[in-house]
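Homework-ish question, so no full write-ups if that breaks the rules, but can someone show me the predicted structure for this set?
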Amino acid sequence: MDKIKIIGGNTLHGKICISGAKNAALPLICASLLTDEPVIIKNVPLLSDITFLNGLLKYLGMDISEKQEIFVQHQSTKYTYQANQITNLVAPYDFVRKMRASYYVLGPLLARFKHVEFSLPGGCAIGARPIDIHLSSLEQMGAKIEIKNGYVIADAPNGLTGAHIIFSKASVGATCNILMAATLASGITKIENAAKEPEIANLIDLLNAMGAKIEGKNTSVLTIEGVEKLHNAEISVISDRIEAGSYAIAAAITHGKIELVNACADFLQQPIRVLEKMGVDVSVDDNSIIVDAVNKTIVGEDIYTDYYPGFPTDLQAQFMALMTVAEGASLVTESIWENRFMHVPELCRMGANINIHGHASAIVRGVKKLSGAPVMATDLRASFALVLAGLAAEGETIVNRVYHLDRGYEKLEEKLKAVGADIERIKESD
Ligand code: UD1
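A: Not a homework solution, just the prediction itself:
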């Protein structure tokens, strides 16, 4: 397995171009299952999660073509998806276990083909991750659902029908899935307590461009009037707010200055507020965010993760890395996932002073310096937190299990090297 080697201590300066958002691209790609006409998706990041999803879609019978192009100063991929020969309605365990977000095929396949079989994903490092809200909502829309041999088998022989659905939690995945399913249901679906993440607005824009009738974008009440058929459309993936937030901390933790090109400050209001309270200067331009921590004293600050527009759970680990070297104490409360402090013991091995209280709170007391060590993480964002700690630490850090990073950070070493980091990938065979 590849590793990443970092020699810490360099101050980072320069520009990093932010890629398209993984979590926006995944549902956009699956929305192409809703029509037999071509759907073009631009600014798709080159990530293993996208490769896995494309593999699953090809298995179902999707025609996929790709073209490299420049999108806002960086190289990206434009994909054309055409679902005019779907021959398979089964998403097998081998695909789903590699990438949970394969559950995005559920809603579209059931809505368009009236049947789907989907391997239950099971838990993962950050928590149990049930899909009960997805399934009960589809049942409210008339689907018959059975769980057999680890698979969800869903049928809607007469098609789905609109329903008034109130989510028990503002789930991102369930909002996307039910939105997609409702576009082809008969009648009106109303979703209350829907998630409001920017990735959902991106999906609504695509679905409406395909002929769907969705109202309530950016609010927690979405109304979808079902239509007979959807058609071809084109969309660009929005910029990745979590990648942007992660590199903002790379500037802060190394007392450097980085311009995040193609980053959207609107999507990052809470993280920017926290960075400013920690002593970092953040200025916002039309299409970029400049993070300046040169000669700044970083101080501790508390965070509480919450549904958007609250502080994103996907930036919790990275902010915790910054807190480990801040002056004073910080309190981190994780309210979304029940097991999202797996990076804590690894940060402590690098000299951090962190105490976990229960499973939702951690107190971080800043230390003067971290020291490099071999470390590993069990999920994507935690792995990036260790990269950040390595950038600030004295000496060499080896981050193992790089495949987590490859799921969500496009060209990670290239981007960090370009701003002055001493970082390299050690290939398995080296
Ligand atoms: C998405 C993101 C993930 C992020 C999370 C929260 C993708 C591919 N992943 O995950 O990076 O951390 O949003 O912002 O976009 N829940 C249930 N039952 C369900 C569904 C969810 O109880 O049927 C719970 C979950 O256990 C969790 C909370 O709801 O506690 C939020 O989960 P959800 O928003 O669905 O997360 P994902 O869409 O899986």
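Now go work out the reasoning yourself. Hint: The first strand starts at residue 3 and ends at 7.
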